[in-house]
Every structure is written in C-alpha cells, then in structure tokens.
C-alpha cells in the first residue's frame, strides 16, 4: 500500500488502530518527496530531523494509548507561520535565515494533536501574489502541468497536497491565497471566518484580512484539521471568543432544503473562461438534484472589490513591513555609510519587486492628503461589500461561485502585467473583505486536464454549513479523486 496516497482520515485511522506505523507513514512521504520535489519545488525547507523525532513521538503515543486527532499525520506548513527552531522565511531574502524563538498557535495545536512536520512550503514573498512566482527562491510548479503555476500565495502548500507529498497542509488566505491555489491544484482549500483561527505567529501581510486554514485532499480532512486549529486564542487580539463546534458532526447531513444563492455578478458567460462557466453551472445542477433550492442573489458592489482590496491590503502591508529595517532581525545590507543608508539598502536588497510595489502603493494611500481619498474611502466601500453579503444571506444559506475565472495559467504568462495577475483573485477577494468563510473544491477538468474549482461561501462562523454542502457535492461526484500524473 502506498501510504502517501491516503487521505488524512484514512491514514490517521490506520495509525490509531496500530495497523500502520507512524514512522513508516513519515518515510512513505519523505520517499515521495525525494521522487517528485525536484519537479515541483514545493518546499523551502525540509525538516528531516524534526520529522523523525515527531514520528517517533507519534509511535510512542500509539503504544501508550494516547492517540490524538492527528497522531502520525504528516503535514506541510506554509513558510509564513513561525516554527520554533525551524527556519521561517516567508520566501523572502529579508527573512532567509530567520529562525523563530517561538511557535505559532496553529502549529502548537497541531503538535498537541500529534502531527508530523515534513517541511515549510514555498509561497509568494510575504504572501503577496497569485502564482508563487514571487518567491525569492524559486517558482513552485503545478503537479498537473509543471509548465503552469500552482496558484498563490499558498502555492507550495497546495502543490504538496496535490502531488501527495503530504497528507495535508496549512496555508494563509488574505485575498484568496488558500482557495485559488487549491482550485488550480485540484484539492480542497478552506478559508475560515476571520477570527476563527488564531493568527498568532503568522507573519503579517494585511492584518484585517489574513486568515489561516487547511488545504487537504478531501472535505472531511478539512473538517478534522479545523477541529484542531480553530478556537479562541488570548494571544491574538483579533481571535473571536465564540464556541468551536465539532465540524465533523453534521458533515454528512446533506443539502436537501438548503438554499443556495447564485450571485449574478459572478457567473457571467463571457466574463470567465467557458470551461469554468460550464463546470460551475453543472455543479449547481448537481446540488439542485440533491434537493438544494437554488436562488439568484445580488452582490452589487462586487465591481469595487479588487480596487478596495488592493488599497486596504497594500496600506496594511506598508505598515506591517515597516519593521523590516535591518536593525533587529532579518536581512541587513553588508555595506552602508550611515543609518539611513542601511535602511535604504537593506529594504531595497531584502524585498522583491512585488513586495516593493505593494509597500509603495500602500504608503501612498496612507500619505498626508491622500488618506481620506483612498484608504478611508476603501474602508467605506468594504462596509458596503460586507452589507451585500449580509443581505444575501437573509435569503440563502450558502453562496456558490467559481473560485477563479480560469484554470492555472502558464508560468511567466502574467508576470509582466500586475493588474491581470491581481484579477486572478476577483472571485475570492470579497470574501476576505467581508470576513466570511469560503471553501474551494474540485468540480471539473478542462480539455487540457487542468482542475476547476467551485467556491462555496457561508455566513460568519457557519463553516459547518459550508463544509456540509461541500461534502455533499464531493461525494456526489468523482472530481476529488482525480490526481495528477507524476512519477510513482
């Protein structure tokens, strides 16, 4: 049996029963990484020593009868989550040699649940991008077609899951960075409600938008991971003190009687790739065939979402990234004449082009004389976008849209046109602005055999209904079982 092909819950159950050794599971994945990583480039750091020690600890826990919900399950962690004693780079030269002295809340909770760390996953630098081409180190490739992007910014995490190099992964989502790469790589990606999962230990990009979530092989796996990483954290002032349900409890309740909203602003023939349009329309018919009630809804301020997002996100990035000045930690220019020269050279040499672009945009939007015209106005429009969702959810239980307007594009295809790149997240950005949960699940393949993603959105803190609808669709179709063809 190829253990690396199993879902998280299949592998977990075999380990818990003692039918599979945790070390054998870890070795199965490390061997798989050895075979395909040179083609995919999903990892910035492989943690061989930590992997072995954590697998041994999992094996001992099974023998002692102290099995946790993730005992022995191998994970990849996006490289913007602090792992104590293990390099955390944000795929940036600025943090290339940074080793955190503390652990993020999510990885602490995974450790308590018994997980095994395989490595840190490549990403767009400081999570700024839609293709993982902005990494300072290398471009991650899509396992379905290595000439194409895996999506971003959690491209390494999504590619690692799709290529069976880990049982599950964590990503972060600021404007679609879990859902869009999940769609491109044919896996499941869940962005929880803002505040549902602690951001403590997540290197900040845009603090009012960032959210950590799971990338997995199926919907049940996402629910299991959410049970572990979700919940209030006093270390994070934006963490919501709301009850954490068992996300697996109502997973299989079906969609009969569920009201499904279809926003007219999203599903426009001609506005998205025709194959994406037809796949999503077919997915809606599947939900309808299972007893869901489909209704048209309107999200009238959708046209303003991209502009609003890029004003707010860049403004917050400008503020958050001001701390990287070459003084306390991170990259410092080797030669400089005075303090100001050190600041200039450290930041200009340490940050890549996309990060610099966003810092400059954000600094401009926050500058004297422009704050009211740009940042303040964007915050007002953000409120209107949130109200659109609030109104829509008065009539429906979930909203269904495409995850991305196209399937994965070729590497280098959009790097010369940042605005076209920004439009890759056009269907995901509003979700972060509103703070609601959303999931991407596979719903088809193009003629070129590239995955297409279906996005399901829910009310604040109603991940249960989102997961329930996603599980029902997943189990009525075979799209989640399709895998890329890679060396075995």
Question: Would you report the number of β strands?
Answer: 11
Please tell me the CATH architecture of one domain by its name. Answer: Alpha-Beta Complex
Q: Total helix count?
A: 15
CATH superfamily membership of one domain? Amidase signature (AS) domain
SS content category: alpha/beta
Which radius of gyration do the C-alpha atoms yield? 21 Å
Q: What is the mean predicted local confidence, pLDDT?
A: 96
Beta-strand residue percentage = 5-15%
Query: Which regions have little confidence, pLDDT < 50, spanning 5+ residues?
Result: none
CATH topology group of one domain = Amidase signature (AS) enzymes
Q: Which strand order spans the largest sheet, edge to edge or round the barrel?
A: 1-3-2-4-6-5-10-11-9-7-8
- Kindly report how far apart the N and C termini lie: 12 Å
Helix-strand topology string: HHEHEHEHEHEEHEHEHHHHEHHEEH
Overall geometric form: globular
Kindly state the percentage of residues in helix: 25-40%
**What would CATH call the class of one domain?**
Alpha Beta
Strand count, sense and barrel status of the largest sheet are: 11 strands, mixed
Structure description:
Strand 7 (259-263), helix 8 (274-289) and strand 8 (293-297) form a beta-alpha-beta unit. Helices cover 37% and strands 13% of the residues. The protein has a domain at 3-257 and 468-481: Amidase signature (AS) enzymes (Alpha-Beta Complex), CATH 3.90.1300.10. The two termini are 12 Å apart. With 488 residues, the protein is α/β, with parallel strands linked by helices. It has 15 helices and eleven strands. The chain is globular and about 65 Å long.
């Amino acid at each position: 049996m190829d253990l690396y092909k199993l879902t998280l819950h299949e592998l977990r159950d075999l380990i818990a029963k003692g039918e599979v050794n945790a070390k054998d599971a870890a070795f199965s994945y490390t061997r798989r990484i050895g075979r395909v990583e040179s083609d995919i480039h999903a990892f910035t750091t492989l943690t061989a020593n930590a992997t072995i020690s954590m697998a041994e600890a999992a094996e001992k826990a099974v023998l002692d009868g102290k099995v946790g919900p993730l005992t022995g399950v191998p994970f990849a962690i996006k490289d913007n989550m602090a792992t104590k004693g293990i390099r955390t780079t944000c795929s940036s030269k600025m943090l290339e040699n940074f080793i955190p002295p503390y652990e993020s809340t999510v990885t602490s909770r995974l450790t308590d649940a018994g997980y095994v760390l395989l490595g840190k996953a490549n990403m767009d630098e400081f999570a700024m991008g839609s293709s993982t081409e902005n990494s300072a180190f290398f471009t991650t490739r899509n396992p379905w077609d290595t000439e194409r992007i895996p999506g971003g910014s959690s491209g390494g995490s999504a590619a690692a899951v799709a290529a069976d190099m880990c049982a599950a992964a964590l990503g972060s989502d600021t404007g679609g960075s879990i859902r869009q790469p999940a769609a491109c790589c044919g896996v499941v990606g869940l962005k929880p409600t803002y505040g549902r999962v602690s951001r403590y230990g997540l290197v900040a990009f845009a603090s009012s938008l960032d959210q950590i979530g799971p990338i997995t092989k199926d919907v049940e796996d996402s629910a299991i991971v959410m049970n572990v990483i979700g919940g209030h954290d006093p270390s994070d002032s934006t963490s919501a003190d709301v009850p954490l349900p068992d996300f697996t409890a109502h997973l299989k309740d079906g969609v009969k009687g569920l009201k499904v909203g279809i926003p007219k602003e999203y599903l426009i023939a001609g506005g998205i790739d025709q194959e994406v349009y037809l796949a999503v329309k077919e997915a809606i018919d599947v939900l309808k065939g299972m007893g869901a009630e489909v209704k048209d809804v309107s999200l009238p301020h959708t046209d303003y979402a991209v502009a609003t997002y890029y004003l707010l996100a860049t403004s917050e990035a400008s503020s958050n990234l001001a701390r990287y000045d070459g003084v306390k930690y991170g990259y410092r220019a080797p030669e400089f004449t005075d303090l100001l020269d050190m600041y200039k050279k450290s930041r200009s040499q340490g940050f890549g082009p996309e990060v610099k672009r966003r810092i400059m945009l954000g600094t401009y939007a926050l500058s004297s004389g422009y704050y009211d015209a740009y940042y303040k106005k964007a915050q007002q429009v953000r409120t209107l976008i949130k109200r659109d969702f609030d109104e829509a959810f008065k009539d429906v239980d979930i909203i269904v849209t495409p995850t991305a307007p196209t399937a994965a594009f070729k590497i280098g295809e959009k790097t010369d046109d940042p605005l076209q790149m920004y439009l890759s997240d056009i269907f995901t950005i509003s979700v972060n602005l509103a703070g609601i949960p959303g999931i991407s699940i596979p719903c088809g393949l193009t003629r070129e055999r590239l995955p297409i993603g279906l996005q399901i959105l829910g009310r604040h803190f109603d991940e249960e209904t989102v997961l329930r609808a996603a599980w029902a669709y997943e189990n009525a179709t075979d799209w989640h079982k399709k895998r890329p063809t890679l060396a075995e």
